[in-house]
Amino acid sequence: MNDLGIEPGRVLEGRRDLGLETRFVGKRVHYLGSVASTNATARGLVDAGELDGTVVLADEQAEGRGRSGRSWFSPSGLGVWASIIVRPELDAKRLAGLGIATAVAIADALGREFGIDARVKWPNDILGGGRKLGGILVEAGQVAGDRIESAVVGIGINVAIGRDEFPEELRTAATSLATLAGRPIGRLPVLRAALSAFEGVYERYAAEGAASVRGRWREISTTLGRVIEVETAGRSIVGTVTDLSPEGALVIQAPDGRSVEVWHGDVVPIR
Ligand code: BT5
User: Fold this and answer.
1) Consecutive 10-residue runs of the chain (271 residues): their mean pLDDT?
2) Contacts (Cβ under 8 Å, ≥6 apart) of 2
3) Residue 5 falls within a domain, yes or no?
4) Is 124's C-beta closer than 6 angstroms to any atom of ligand 1?
5) pLDDT at site 234
6) What domain range includes position 184?
7) Which of these, 78, 118, 211, 235, could form a disulfide with 107 (CB 3.0-4.6 Å)?
8) What pLDDT is attached to residue 144?
9) For ligand 1, is residue 174 a contact (CB within 6 Å)?
10) Distance CA 193, CA 38 (A)
11) Cβ count within 10 A of residue 264
């Protein structure tokens, strides 16, 4: 039997079967063994009309996805690989900010629950000890005009991947909760913490946008106040990170003093 004490391949009732304390997130949990990507499975379920808050949880992903076609290493039983279906009625330009808000809320919850110093790196990285501990991937489902009617929020958290179990190319850049905490940690408490954190921030985000997490983001961001370089929309911008905008853009002060909002891209701190 695995660490969840449940055989995969069933639809679970989160509260009864997993001890979730959420109101609507994880009411139904499609718990699967191996999938290509939980986000891909969840997208199929969205189209089939699956309920708001339903979660797809897998032991293992053969084709776990990151942003921009990148891949996400998802070994069996060693991490939380989950996707949440949401039906938010959200302005399309606010969708990316939901990923940022989710990263902040989950980093916060992991820090509290497991006594680690968890931080965030814009847009969607969760870091511990300067290494990547998790990532969020938000994808639109049904869109009507400029309204998002459904979306999938993918959550990847490395729970018990040992240093040597990461592939060579991730070994210095990635970490896991068990490594950071210096003790064994199972997936279930991590799943519970992540889904509760998501539920709380989702409701605040729907009402207030990224302003709901701006204060906390400023406290746990690894890049606030630093000079960074970001590749965005085919060009490179260098500047000092000054804020998170209400829509979730990174606000950068360019060397000429102008304030620039960056919506996509990968941030590289240079000093
Ligand atoms: C992300 O992308 O950080 C979003 C990751 C989301 C994964 C979840 S798991 C459940 C759900 N279903 C999916 O298919 N995906 C979501 P990005 O910022 O693009 O970062 C990707 C990069 O992180 C890769 O190019 C690697 O360099 C690195 N990476 C890959 N796997 C990793 C891991 N397990 N831990 C740390 N870093 C990793």
Assistant:
1) 91 98 98 98 96 98 96 98 95 93 98 97 96 98 95 98 97 98 97 98 93 96 96 90 94 95 92 81
2) 8, 59, 77
3) no
4) yes
5) 84
6) 10-219
7) 118
8) 94
9) yes
10) 19
11) 14
CATH number at residue 48: 3.30.930.10
- 255 CA to middle of ligand 1, Å? 32
Nearest Cα residue to atom 23 of ligand 1: 72
The verdict on the CB of residue 132 being under 6 Å from ligand 1 is yes
Q: Which residue lies with its CA nearest to atom 20 of ligand 1?
A: 66
What is the rounded CA–CA span in Å between residue 248 and residue 262?
Answer: 9
CATH number at 246 reads: 2.30.30.100
**Ligand 1 proximity of 41 Cβ (cutoff 6 Å):** no
**Ligand 1 contact via 165 beta carbon (within 6 Å):** no
What single-letter amino acid sits at 267?
A: V
Q: What is the pTM of this model?
A: 0.97
Q: Are residues 130 and 244 in the same domain?
A: no
- Tokens 């400029």 belong to 146
The per-residue pLDDT for 271 is: 81
pLDDT of residue 105: 98
**Is 66 touching ligand 1 by the criterion CB < 6 Å?**
yes
* DSSP for residue 193: H
Residue with CA nearest ligand 1 atom 30: 72
d(CA 204, CA 96): 15
Q: How far is the CA of 144 from the centre of ligand 1 (A)?
A: 28
State whether 215 and 232 are in the same domain.
no
Q: Which of 37, 71, 72, 133 to mutate to test the pocket of ligand 1 (most atoms within 8 A of CB)?
A: 72
Q: Which residues contact 5 (CB under 8 A, 6 or more apart)?
A: none
